[in-house]
Design a protein that fits this description.
The complex is a heterodimer of chains A (111) and B (116). In chain A, 0% of the residues lie in helices and 59% in strands. Chain A has 111 residues and is mainly β. Classes of the chains: A mainly beta (111), B mainly beta (116).
Chain lengths: 111, 116
């Protein structure tokens, strides 16, 4: 079974709106990462948040982590058409060096 | 190289044939991962190499799948007697010696395998 699961599966918004996607996981983690994938090809790392952090920012991205609820959220503010992509969270539990990915959230930003 | 390089970019093969997929990681990255992604799905872990340690093969779906990493650098993933369900994008990633727990993974652009 997958460690991280994103929701919603699909999100469609207008340019300028904010996009929020969530990730839930099952077991304790050391850190959580968010990745972006364009056109079903290579993934690009967006942000890493450690288990002792609650919030992290990078440009228009804001990531939160709630270890008590085993969940994380990725907020993209003032979205652009170029943000259209799939977004995945990745976690590794315990001492594992093998991250697992969810099915992703497919984001479409309409110009 | 500047990034993780995978070849070929696309591969169409007939059912029953063997295929070899190549991954050239970022120089100095000791950890290398192979994942598989079927259409519209998440990433499925296949195999993990770390330095000179024995690889973690726990994700390989059958004995038709094998991988090696020569000299701690280039890796090849081999699929024998391909089946239609093997059709997917095969992604390779590498990380700094610290491992993916604490650092980002750098992904290649993948090999899109189509078995006809």
């Amino acid at each position: 079974s997958q460690q991280g699961e994103e929701d919603p599966q699909a999100l469609s918004i207008q340019e300028g709106e904010n996009a929020t996607m969530n990730c839930s996981y099952k077991t304790s983690i050391n850190n959580l990462q968010w990745y972006r994938q364009n056109s079903g090809r290579g993934l690009v790392h967006l942000i890493l948040i450690r288990s002792n952090e609650r919030e992290k920012h990078s440009g228009r991205l804001r990531v939160t982590l709630d270890t008590s609820k085993k969940s994380s959220s990725l907020l993209i503010t003032a979205s652009r058409a170029a943000d259209t992509a799939s977004y995945f969270c990745a976690t590794a539990s315990g001492g594992s060096y093998i991250p697992t990915f969810g099915r992703g959230t497919s984001l479409i930003v309409h110009p | 190289g500047a990034g993780v390089s995978q070849s070929p970019s696309n591969k169409v093969t007939e059912k029953g044939k063997d295929v070899e997929l190549r991954c050239d990681p970022i120089s100095g990255h000791t950890a290398l991962y192979w994942y598989r992604q079927s259409l519209g799905q998440g990433l499925e872990f296949l195999i993990y190499f770390q330095g000179n340690s024995a690889p973690d093969k726990s994700g390989l779906p059958s004995d038709r799948f094998s991988a090696e990493r020569t000299g701690g650098s280039v890796s090849t993933l081999t699929i024998q007697r391909t089946q239609q369900e093997d059709s997917a994008v095969y992604l390779c990633a590498s990380t700094h010696p610290g491992g993916l727990m604490n650092t980002e993974a750098f992904f290649g652009q993948g090999t899109r395998l189509t078995v006809v």
